[in-house]
């Protein structure tokens, strides 16, 4: 069977021949793989391209390690959420919709090459969303696992319009686990959380509005509904995007706390963000170390039996509590 290579393939091949660096060669090879027709006549060419991509990527990774090169993302807002998924899963488009910003979005794989943090507004708080390069067995940047290990929540994103979506999702989850990151549906209470071996995960299927997507969604749910929280969305449907924002905040397991000085109104500006289950003493440490050391009691307006109720250090804070600390 003839290969019938497209003009896009030949342009990428020409870029490969002109490439001066390993990064340029890798970009061109990925372009060739994306453009090559997928049929029996090109199977050997596809396998060869994948092998060359793997070799070039290894060359880049070795070079980066020798130079001590690393990438980190400074945390901002009320939580850090990393988006991981196979190529062309719709991560970047979804983040752009959630944050109402513009990101580089294309129909070819591996568009995202570096972490791209942007802020998502939810009511009166900001949540940091981090767009990462694809996570798959074909290729993953060597620094991605370190970022996944330190975030608060991993959103695993996959394309429901892809006929091979189950295989693609399985591949992404397997690669993450191979890097000693265990994905769990909620924050564990044991010490393994502190050792950054476990991370909360939420599965998100994109393009639910496209043909065959709902059928594929039912298949995914049969395999994973009992293991993780899950959502299916279309970036074109406002209601689904709003619901996903709520689910992200819910999955982060955080509460908002406002402060109040004696005799004054509550400060309802930017709230403090603390993990769900935090005590009054935990919150006092967040405000200032001296507050925790000298805390006598506090009054709370919110979910208590009555407004201004006096509580002790062991009081468990609720979302939107207003706290008046007394030292």
Detailed description of the structure:
This protein has 327 residues and is of the alpha/beta class. The protein folds into three domains: 7-66, no CATH class; 80-252, P-loop containing nucleotide triphosphate hydrolases (Rossmann fold, 3-Layer(aba) Sandwich), CATH 3.40.50.300; 255-326, Ubiquitin-like (UB roll), CATH 3.10.20.30. The chain has ten helices and twelve strands. It has helices at 7-18, 22-35, 43-66, 91-99, 144-150, 165-178, 213-224, 238-252, 280-287, 289-294; strands at 80-84, 116-122, 125-131, 153-159, 182-184, 198-206, 229-232, 254-260, 266-275, 297-301, 309-311, 321-326. The strands form two sheets. Strands 1, 2, 3, 4, 5, 6 and 7 form a seven-stranded mixed beta sheet that branches. A five-stranded mixed beta sheet has the order 9-8-12-10-11. Helix 7 links the parallel strand 6 and strand 7 (229-232). Helix 1 packs antiparallel against helix 2 and helix 2 packs antiparallel against helix 3. The termini are far apart. The mean pLDDT is 87.
